[in-house]
Amino acid sequence: MEFDDATKITKGLSLHSVGKxxxxxxxxxxxxxxxxxxxxxxEAVTVIGRSAxxxxxxxxxxxxxxxxxxxxxxxxxxxxxxxxxxxxxxxxVRVDAQFLKDGDKIQIAPQVFFKFTLHDELExxxxxxxxxxxxxxxxxxxxxKRYFGERLLTEWSYSVRHETPLSLVMMDLDHxxxxxxxxxxxxxDYVLRGFAELAADTIRTEDVVCRYGGEEFAVICREFPMPAxxxxxxxxxxxxxxxxxxxxxxxIPVTVSLGVAGVPHDSIxxxxxxxxxxxxxxxxxxxxxxxxxxxxxxx
Length: 299
Fold this sequence. Notes:
The chain is α+β, with helices and mostly antiparallel strands. It has helices at residues 3-14, 121-135, 145-162, 176-183, 185-202, 226-242, 271-287, and strands spanning 25-30, 39-41, 45-49, 56-57, 68-73, 76-81, 88-90, 93-95, 97-99, 105-109, 112-119, 166-173, 208-213, 216-222, 245-247, 250-252, 256-263, 293-295. It is elongated, with a radius of gyration of 22 Å. The relative contact order is 0.11. Residues 1-23 have low confidence and may be disordered.
């Protein structure tokens, strides 16, 4: 994130900083994975684990179904291990139960870390805006490439662990350079924002769409086999093809090419290979005439 962005956030917050500050509240800050930097306010009882019923679900390797609990008591916040397989650690020491201090580091799996912190509403707003600015593309408000890489790793691990399908759709706006050349860069920005909205409205709630770079975008589809992802990709293609992008009274012709890849597949054994396969399918769609969907391994 640029320094100017942080300055704008700070200035914006300062307008609301006059008056009485709220009493400090207790939070967990995520220190690893795709949600790095995200904060979660603690409830009276906060349950952490792989279970979908947990207050804070962390479906990562080494995390038990119900791993630990945090209780807000009159004496402070107490962390209690819930009989987890791999244990709960505070500042590197395994604990069964311990009251937490501001700044304590909590580990519940090899790659799952939190920081316990106390801060007020003003500080929380600042943290949330900084987190959002770091992971979102400022133009389209979609997640950025950094988030894409972290989230794909998480979804890949989930797919391997639970033996469920995972699909990836890579998308590229056709002849986008001509939009900038013929209509100007403001028109190009308008098209990018419009496409991002259409794509976000077309995918499932559980899917994640990101701006991969320039005019290229990606959709990560958890528990979604390739045939279903192909149908979704073509729905995006048709939606964009029919949409009227009007700039300064003139319609801008906009189409998109899409490549689909997924697992299980014999030739894809790691997440980088999944990206490469989807990219190859995208290039095939563009080479085949654009405004079409190509699927990895499908003739």
